[in-house]
Amino acid sequence: MWRSVARRSSQVRRLLSTSAPPAGPLATVPAPCIVQKRGNDILNDPWYNKDTAFPLTERDRLGLRGLLPPRVMSFEQQYERFINSYRSLEKNTRGEPDSIVALAKWRILNRLHDRNETLYFRVLIDNIKDLAPVIYTPTVGLVCENYSGLFRRPRGMYFTAKDKGEMMSMIYNWPQEKVDMIVVTDGSRILGLGDLGVQGIGIPIGKLDLYVAAAGINPQKVLPVIIDVGTNNEKLLEDNLYLGLRQPRLEGEEYMAVVDEFMEAVHARWPQAVVQFEDFQMKWAFETLERYRNRFCMFNDDVQGTAGVALAGLLGAVRAQGRPLHDFTSQKIVVAGAGSAGIGVLSMAKQEMSRMLAKTGEEGHNQFWVLDKNGLITKDRKDLDPAVANFARGHGPNEIPDLHEGAMKESDSPRPAIFAMSNPTTKAECTPEDVFKHVGENAIFASGSPFSNVSLGNGKTGYANQANNMYLFPGIGLGALLSGARHISDDMLQAGAECLASYITDDEIQKGILFPEVSSIRHITARVGAAVVRAAVAEDLAEGCRTVGPKELGSMSESQTVEYVARNMWYPIYSPLVNNK
Ligand SMILES: NC(=O)c1ccc[n+]([C@@H]2O[C@H](COP(=O)([O-])OP(=O)(O)OC[C@H]3O[C@@H](n4cnc5c(N)ncnc54)[C@H](O)[C@@H]3O)[C@@H](O)[C@H]2O)c1
Ligand SMILES: O=C(O)C[C@H](O)C(=O)O
Ligand SMILES: [Mg+2]
């Protein structure tokens, strides 16, 4: 592994301990890293660049002498200098509009990302709670909206409708021999912001930053991708600065042919890579998932990752009500939004209820109501997507309740739960303040983008949980990769969700805390990843990874699997560079 460390025992120990989140320097000697470059080419390569931290011996070895100021700084000094500039930026922009501050923070981080990946990812890992809102939702939404104006350097790969017939060779333009993790979008439904065309590439970049920070995927082995088939966003089509194809989106078979070719090209060069589909509009989200899920190692994060996180939250809400988990089968669930996320959540909740009921041999009731922008989904609606039609209500007794009758304030639940999962913050259905004020102090709240907790007076806190698929997708991808799964099954996803659900203690649940602190995301991901590996093994889908074969995976205990996953997480540390040119 690139810049792997000789012994990682202290980091692995940190990942295995249940208390402290993994962070801080390793007390081990890093193994050397072989580079094919010299001199300026190294300084200009963010994967190898150490800026002023190149020791003198390395400067001699790599032809860097004279290309850097004489003083050699330590990693810790560089780290501190960066954090100090970041804090001064926060101070100097106090009082400025939120969007100006957010973009200024994103810019300073992006510049570091472009210059020195080791320092960037250490800063990100150590400060993930503060920085996730900058590199991920909500700021990433703003970045995508302004991508063409903000553009300075390319990142990732851009496949377009004009590249038909070329993708199989184009894929070899990517400079890295090995790619483990790909996040791809067609930019058609970026967060709740709609069609942003090529500008949607900000989403795969942000998701892969989290893959590195949370799952320890080696940043040299990640590939953000946009498939640009045009855009139907008139504003962008008229914008002179717009960097994507200036044509309406391809549709139907033409569209599918482009995505097919991309998938074939990826598979030809990196057959083991895991591909995460992200922010595709609903029709393509479901169609590509059905088309590829048994052929490639892929999943759709908006449908499947989101569903797992919501399910973990819903199971937490049942625990908070003081009821046994089986009571989930009688919970009433109303979903506002019949899109890829909403329908994904309902499908997984329905599956979970069926599993629970199968154990006791009871009959299930239809406990779901779905609304879209035109109101309740009923069977007499025309042109319903087949996935949505599964949840349409008939006109029998109790089929169509007055939804106000079930309004949360009058709910007979001791802990009514409201998940305002739309992103970014500006698109959230409601705020935690709204919920605790209108529904009451017993409500349980979660949102897709981060909000602050609410003080309820008398020293009580109303918790603003973050129900975001970031708690699951890094573990799903990592588990799929480390098991060498042929494809990603429902059982693997279920295992990840159940692992997340079981992470929270009863004490926390009673307070209304449904999800762990973002600062412990590496710890969570190690466990979710292990649960996914074990599910792949149980289903005989695991073909093994690198030197670890399916037999060895199968003989690992639960804790050994967590250790295996933790041991394979990359951690940012400067390795001695050795030139072999
Ligand atoms: N928190 C998370 O982890 C997470 C994960 C995935 C998606 N999301 C967010 O969820 C939102 C929806 O994503 P999606 O993939 O389902 O989108 P989508 O475009 O597939 O579906 C959106 C649905 O919302 C409906 N809708 C729009 N306005 C409505 C209204 N006022 N009332 C009721 N329904 C309304 C539309 O009719 C459509 O059915 C986005 O904001 C996305 O960012 C959050
Ligand atoms: O990107 C996120 O923050 C979550 C989710 O994938 C979304 O599309 O909103
Ligand atoms: Mg998404």
Automatic annotation (TrEMBL):
A divalent metal cation binds at residues 278-279, 302. Its cofactor is Mg(2+); Mn(2+). Residues 1-23 are annotated as: Disordered. Divalent metal cations. Prefers magnesium or manganese. Residues 113-293 form the Malic enzyme N-terminal domain. Residues 303-537 form the Malic enzyme NAD-binding domain. Keywords: Metal-binding, Oxidoreductase. It holds the Pfam family malic. GO terms for molecular function: malate dehydrogenase (decarboxylating) (NAD+) activity; metal ion binding; NAD binding. It comes from the Eukaryota. GO terms for biological process: malate metabolic process. Residues 1-19 have a biased composition (Low complexity). PANTHER family: MALIC ENZYME-RELATED, NAD-DEPENDENT MALIC ENZYME 2, MITOCHONDRIAL. This is Malic enzyme.
